[in-house]
């Protein structure tokens, strides 16, 4: 591979995370993930505050969830990739709220969903203007995560897992609310001040936590920025206000990726490609796959296929869609995220079978695909 790459990894009931490629990935790595509500109904999971602050409780809960998944989908190779390290983990802790919580915002916890920052919990202009660099080691939220790491290390040795640090604009949206989108027009200097502060906070925070994980025996030196709300601004605004910070983040880690959610990424393709050491990129299946394959030659590609297609399309249509993805992008990852209770298990099993059959027919038989990794 020409650049250090990442692959998508969705732990049970967690937001998307990223881990280093192994070089042994199949030509099409097919994954599915489920909503927290799915786990709540199917496995009796309580995803409230205790899940996020008690590693021993989380261990038993994840073990229960994973057991239910393996029993329901025994033929899905994706679910067998990780061992018990997946239980003694930081993955899923505080959902996508961790960085906003470092800024003092309070999460709301749910038994059947990820935590969320209250829509009334935002920092004012004056509070943001008065921000100074954080004393992270004495930040109460960071202290709590370090306490969890101590428990994991004491009980299981290795501090496994991937906290979801989000991206600069995502975090600004949580910290400032919808006003951040007007700030970029009404007071560009203020918006840049906030983005600068968030970027420096993220780099220091991630490096501090990952250093502790490496010292425990879990090698991690990576970050993938979550640009979930970038499609709420134009490519020109992204170029001016967000891209410089994505580039700075990318230079701070051995491996770097860009997550853009399950939407059409076409207007941002050339801009994302300006991140020189990009080793991962994802996008919705309706994006311009041909251009993505041409442009992101050094990055591992990850296609999101809407869960609604598992009941809204026929098996023949699944096969056609997967064939197109394989022929234009393979080797790559393909995920069906956020499967809810309306999707029958048999549809999920059948989709995975079809996707793997197509990959075998196209990539194993017609390409020396390992040379493309």
Sheet with most strands: strand arrangement: 3-10-9-8-7-6
Predict the CATH topology. TIM Barrel
The total number of structural domains is 1
Contiguous low-pLDDT stretches (5 residues minimum) are 366-373
Q: How many DSSP E strands?
A: 10
> Which geometry do the CA atoms define?
globular
Please describe what this structure looks like.
This protein has one domain (44-306): TIM Barrel, CATH 3.20.20. Helix 7 packs across helix 9. The termini are close together. The radius of gyration is 20 Å and the shape is globular. It is built from 16 helices and ten strands. The protein has 373 residues and is α/β, with parallel strands linked by helices.
Secondary structure layout:
Layout: E1 6-9, E2 17-20, E3 28-34, H1 36-43, H2 49-53, H3 55-72, H4 98-102, E4 107-110, E5 113-117, H5 125-129, H6 140-156, H7 168-176, H8 179-186, H9 188-216, E6 222-226, H10 235-241, H11 243-250, E7 255-259, H12 269-272, E8 278-284, H13 289-295, E9 300-304, H14 309-312, H15 315-329, E10 332-339, H16 345-366
Parallel strand pairs: 3-10, 6-7, 7-8, 8-9, 9-10
Antiparallel strand pairs: 1-2, 4-5
Quickly describe the structure:
The chain is of the alpha/beta class and 373 residues long. The protein has helices spanning 36-43, 49-53, 55-72, 98-102, 125-129, 140-156, 168-176, 179-186, 188-216, 235-241, 243-250, 269-272, 289-295, 309-312, 315-329, 345-366, and strands spanning 6-9, 17-20, 28-34, 107-110, 113-117, 222-226, 255-259, 278-284, 300-304, 332-339. Helix content is 46%, strand content 14%.
